[in-house]
Amino acid sequence: MSPTPPLGLSTDGWLTPARHCPSPHCDQRPEGEISLLVVHSISLPPGRFGGPYIDQLFLGQLDPAADPYFAEIHQVRVSAHCLIRRDGELVQYVPFNKRAWHAGLSCFEGREKCNDFSIGIELEGTDTGRFTPAQYRRLIRVSRLLMAAYPAITRERIVGHNDIAPGRKTDPGTGFDWGFIERL
């Protein structure tokens, strides 16, 4: 087994190594520091893993005929900065210096519009399931790198989507182990 290559961050906000799939669902951030890391979960169709559908959603290419659920969401314009698949594969859709559209209506410590000052990381999974050791290992590596690059992101400023959109969102869900923060 070969050693895992070091994770790097380019000056234009892209991780290496990672699979890059630039999403059109982003825009310029307002002035200010990046100070929040939001953990999400996603599976498409719900409860199924693998396949091209998360990429297609974040790229605006989801075929509504591919699954009955997609008819409801194919026109939604959302993205995340990164996705960590079940096997630990890292996919980046939006560079960190841009605003991804992941948080929606949200508020953290009295500040609304969390997309303005946050980074969104999706884990392939469900709100009720567990995540894989490979996902936690990758999340730890990415989180450490982001905390070094953006010092305003501290352990206390790593939250779930449910924390910034209570009552509206439940991810990353009950199966997510927040103990990963202790390993940062």
Helix content bin:
10-25%
Largest sheet: 6 strands, mixed
Q: Give the CATH class.
A: Alpha Beta
Cα-based radius of gyration, to the nearest Å: 15 Å
Shape: globular
**Which second-level CATH architecture applies?**
3-Layer(aba) Sandwich
Arithmetic mean pLDDT: 96
Poorly predicted sequence stretches spanning 5 or more consecutive residues: none
Number of helices: 4
Please, what is the CATH homologous superfamily? Peptidoglycan recognition protein-like
> Distance between the terminal alpha carbons, to the nearest Å?
24 Å
The share of residues in extended strands comes to: 15-25%
Q: How many distinct beta strands? A: 12
Catalytic activity: Hydrolyzes the link between N-acetylmuramoyl residues and L-amino acid residues in certain cell-wall glycopeptides
Cofactor: Zn(2+)
InterPro entries: Amidase/PGRP_sf, Amidase_domain, NAMLAA_amidase_2
Keywords: Cell wall biogenesis/degradation, Cytoplasm, Hydrolase, Metal-binding, Zinc
